[in-house]
Specification:
Helix 4 crosses helix 5 (89-100). Helix content is 76%, strand content 0%. It has one domain (3-100). It is mainly alpha-helical and 116 residues long.
Amino acid sequence: MSTTEDKSQVLEMVGLYQKDPEAFEKMRADIIHQMLEDFPEEYRKRAYGMQFQIEMRLRRYKDPIVRMNMMIAMFWEQFDEFNRVLNDPQKFISDRDAEHCESAKVLPLKKTIIKH
């Protein structure tokens, strides 16, 4: 797709959002779905999972400017994580593993005898 076609599609979507926000949401969802379906099979499930997480984080924001700002914040969170992996992968992995490995308290079970 050329830059002119990209601009044309963006302008079309802006106009659609202004006229019919529900139709815009359907078009947006359809475009995202088609892009995810074009992913290679081995990455598609993960891509759908990531898209679900994005949608869940954004669903509470109805104002388009607030949603855009949240998307930008999410982008920078992921960029920061990518940067940490790139610069020190071993430290990133050990930090991530340490977050997921909390010690558990073992509770003793009392032995009860049931008489019939």
